[in-house]
Design goal:
Blueprint lengths: L4 E9 L5 E4 L7 E8 L2 E13 L6 E10 L5 E9 L1 E10 L5 H16 L3 H18 L1 H37 L2 H103 L3
Antiparallel strand pairs: 1-2, 1-7, 3-4, 4-5, 5-6
Helix pairs in contact: 1-2, 2-3
Bound molecules: zinc ion (ZN).
Zinc ion binds next to loops.
Length: about 280
């Protein structure tokens, strides 16, 4: 069994021929019977309408029968009228909005927006709007119109506010003299910076050249130093040898002089001894 039956119908007064229209709100379908069949329940709905012709005030009675089987499908319909002729009728299964469905639909709608997939969002928004419109045309139209007005107002307010802010900033930022002085100072600073960089560059180049010259001089001197190294070593060795010979000679002379001095002393001592004995001391 579904949520109910929606119906629309057109009928004509048998007395005066005036045409009447019935809308969904005019029907009050009630379950008349329900039987369990092979594919589930078969439900019989009946709506009775008692009306007066709006033209001749003739009393009119209408009866509509709808069979739903299987669930969600209208299997067949039947209608009967007193003092009227039903010229057209249409029935559909009513789906009351499920609050969970709404949440799911809104979530489905927001997801592409969060993923920045605006084409997907647009497509789903259109589907959503059409679904809502089919469910309830009047409410959807009114709420869409209100949303449109509110969105336009919000956008307009946003533009107005940003323009106001821009307008407040302009007189300060656009002061010509200040801008000119600022640009002049910036240019001066940039020139100074350029000079500084240029002078540093020259200094670095001079240092580089000096290092290059020193390297060249070192390269020129290196063979000379290496060639004369042996000579210098030989000179030092000869000097050392001379020094050693001199010390040896000094020592030999010292020893010889010592021996000579002892000899002289011994000779003198004997002379003195002989001289004393001769005098009979
Ligand atoms: Zn009538």
């Amino acid at each position: 069994m579904s949520d109910g039956i929606d119906g629309e119908a057109i009928y004509k007064c048998s007395n005066c021929g005036a045409k009447h229209f019935l809308h969904a709100d005019d029907f009050e379908f009630e379950v008349q019977s329900s039987d369990e069949r092979q594919m589930g329940a078969e439900t019989q709905y009946v709506a009775e309408i008692h009306a007066c012709c709006h033209n001749c005030k003739e009393a009119i009675e209408l009866e509509f029968e709808v069979w739903e089987y299987p669930a969600g499908i209208i299997n067949c319909t039947n209608e009967s009228a007193n003092n009227a002729e039903i010229t057209d009728s249409h029935f559909s299964i009513e789906h009351l909005p499920n609050p969970d469905d709404g949440v799911v639909e809104v979530a489905k709608l927001i997801k592409p927006l969060l993923q920045f997939r605006f084409d997907k969002f647009s497509e789903q928004f259109v589907d959503f709007w059409i679904t809502q419109y089919r469910k309830n045309a009047r409410t959807t139209t009114i709420s869409s119109a209100i949303s449109l007005v509110l969105a336009s107002a919000a956008i307009g307010l946003g533009i107005y506010t940003s323009q106001e802010k821009l307008g407040q900033q302009l007189p300060r930022a656009q002061d010509f003299n200040e801008q000119y002085v600022l640009l002049k100072t910036t240019q001066q600073n940039l020139n100074d910076l350029e000079h500084f960089i240029s002078s540093k560059k020259n200094e670095m180049e001079a240092t580089q050249n000096l290092l290059g010259d020193l390297e060249e001089q070192r390269a020129a001197i290196e063979p000379i130093v290496q060639a004369n190294q042996e000579l210098v070593d030989a000179m030092f060795a000869q000097h050392r040898r001379d020094n050693e010979n001199y010390v040896l000679r000094e020592r030999l002379i010292g020893v010889a002089l010592g021996v000579l001095a002892s000899l002289i002393a011994s000779v003198i001592w004997h002379f003195i001894g002989r001289f004393r004995r001769k005098r009979g001391v």
